[in-house]
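Annotated sample (chain length 283).
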Amino acid sequence: MPHLQRKGFAQPDHARTFPNGKIDVIQLGEVAVGRFLFQPGWRWSEDVAAIVGTRSCQHRHLGYTISGSLHVRMDDGTEMVIQPGDAYEIPPGHDAWVEGEQAWDSVEFTSARTFAMSPQELGERTLATILFSDIVDSTAKLATLGDRAWAELLEEHNARVRTAIDQFRGREMATLGDGFLALFDGPARAVRAAVSMDQAVTDLGLRLRVGIHTGELEIVGGQVRGLAVHTAARVAALAGPGEVLVSATTHDLLDGSGLSFELHGEHELKGLSGKRALFALER
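Output written by the structure step:
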């Protein structure tokens, strides 16, 4: 439960060092806040890539620069220099390096928990609740609005969905055209995030379908793999406008959460054996 509290980086809950860099992390309840300090000469592709084993940084960064300058280059070639006093967002898929002779000092609110951690530290396989979201009738809306208006609407949708994911301690893993794939460390957070996501875009004239499943998966090169991921995608494909569907596995784990569900029937999920019971959240 949220409560009045404060902590200082002088006594962090834990710290992580890597070549030319350091992160101090404090926990404010369920939120991890990081103080990033990258020395002159630090570069992600030289100092962190070998640790995490990905071609580019797959974290989403949201923070504020105290001092120093950071040059960011996205995988698509887009570049930006983040300077002192700047609040910033850096999407997944980028390289970055410190510019000049001053260390880059910043505070971040999204990536501190796992930045610069190896697959071994994170665990090769992990248990997580997987959420897939998708905009209902997106093709028809694109045809009605046209490319430019649809792109602007999609950008606003993405911003609002990301806010909901962050609010419920989710981790964005991919954007899939007009949908999202995110991981959560608890099924109740995933369901509440799904409700918040749909409510956040209703005034845009959009409705979402969401599917949720809990199971073991692998995170390799910033990408999630495993049967559980495919199961969650199949569940999402069966959801209707504004509907949140969960698998029987996730439903069982939600006992005592205060969330109510009704049986949505038994369904054959493409590529998976046998019929599976699904449950719809009562809104």
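Annotation: Residues 14-118 form a domain with the Jelly Rolls fold (CATH 2.60.120.10).
Annotation: The chain has a mean pLDDT of 92.
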